[in-house]
Amino acid sequence: MVRYIVVSVVGGILFGVLDGVINGNPLAQRLYQVYQPIAKTSINPLAGMVIDLVYGFVMAGVFLLLYNSLPGGTGLVKGLSFALLVWFFRVVMHAASQWMMFNVPIEALLYSLVAGLAEMLILGVLFGLALKPAA
Known about the structure:
By secondary structure, this protein is mostly helical. It has one domain. It is 76% helix and 0% strand. It contains five helices and no strands. The chain has helices at 2-24, 26-31, 45-66, 75-101, 106-130. The longest helix is centred in the middle third of the chain and has 27 residues, at 75-101. It starts with a helix and ends in a 5-residue tail after the last helix.
């Protein structure tokens, strides 16, 4: 239980840091100009961190629930499998929806896909190396 809490908090902090790096860098700022008319001009860092911490707990919990069903013989491979699963449902489906509904440059969508994959792989490795269901 303590390991779950620690890994969840670390995962949530990683979510926040990675989201900041992914969305706040100059390349992302240039690619995401298309969202400028509807983008917020300020952020609430406390709310963002709380949301990312909740994500960390939920993702770690779902990883543990799915652990025995994930492909792979080691925690690392299971973590990578989980990362790909989450990437598809979180990032790929969002990018496909954006592509269908809005006039978003393909470069922005490709950046989201690649950056989202990197983020999910980092989190998947963390969960895979640090978490196992109780025996």
